[in-house]
Specification:
alpha/beta; binds magnesium ion; binds adenosine-5'-triphosphate; 10 strands; 4-stranded antiparallel sheet; 6-stranded mixed sheet; Rossmann fold
Length: about 230
């Protein structure tokens, strides 16, 4: 479970300061699915980076199961990240010279998983997103939707507690968007993940059980009774 208290993040910009997050209080229960919307520059990606321990707040607490990520020494934060948190980004971020299987395996290297087990787990993870036949393909040989499924397999191969997705369908056309959402939601249910996703897509937001809006660094959350 996440508990955020009074989280702020300020960035210097010339002589000014940008207040990207301005006092975020937020609780996310285990197994929850939260969708975040809001205008560009509102602070959505900044918040996701805080949840994922990719960045630290200027002030406030980010408790993940009682551990404050804001205070954790770098080495322990890296460990929390590599064990517990999967990321999916708009731009897939696959390594172009590695096959689908090798891309997925990269997530297991920091965990000290042996080569044979890495290969097996990567193949399983790719099968679970419908790419069991594409293990040896390079990213350039796959469609955008397929590349994003490789990225999802890479995020989930280590069986993290948390999945964070920043506009995962932002670069995809409508049919692929639906396909990717189906995969994400199916894996969320199967793995019992805590799933936080940023999207500009209102059709996706309408189906979310819990919906947050971030505007000028402030958050409002509502239960989506119509979902
Ligand atoms: N590394 C950085 N250095 C300086 N300013 C930053 C940095 N990252 C973000 N900001 C600023 O913080 C604010 C929030 O940015 P953020 O990327 O979180 O917005 P966002 O809601 O994700 O927007 P978008 O919908 O365009 O992705 C913006 O004003 C942005 O310019
Ligand atoms: Mg963003």
């Amino acid at each position: 479970m996440y508990e955020l208290r009074g989280v702020t993040r300020r960035y210097p910009r010339g002589k000014e300061t940008v207040q990207a997050l301005d006092g975020i209080d937020l609780t996310i229960a285990d197994g929850d699915r939260l969708v975040i919307q809001g205008p560009t520059g509102g602070g959505k990606s900044t918040l996701l980076q805080m949840l994922g321990g990719l960045d630290r707040p200027s002030s406030g607490e980010i408790l993940l199961d009682g551990t404050d990520l804001a205070e954790l020494p770098e080495a322990r934060l890296t460990r929390v990240r590599s064990e517990n948190i999967g990321f999916v980004f708009q731009s897939f971020n696959l390594i172009p010279t590695l096959t689908a299987q090798e891309n997925v395996e990269t997530a297991l290297v920091p965990l000290g998983v042996r080569a044979k087990e890495r290969r097996e787990k990567a193949a399983e993870a790719l099968a679970s997103v419908g790419l069991g036949e594409r293990l040896g393909h390079l990213p350039g040989e796959m469609s955008g939707g397929q590349q994003q499924r490789v990225a999802i397999a890479r995020a989930l191969v280590k069986e993290p507690k948390v999945l964070l997705a920043d506009e995962p369908t932002g670069n995809l056309d409508e049919s692929m968007r639906d396909e990717i959402m189906d995969v994400l939601i199916r894996r969320w249910k199967e793995l019992g993940l805590t799933f936080v996703m940023v999207t500009h897509d209102s059709a996706i937001a309408r189906k979310a059980p819990r919906l947050a809006t971030i505007r000028e660094g402030r958050i409002t959350v509502r239960e989506n009774t119509g979902a």
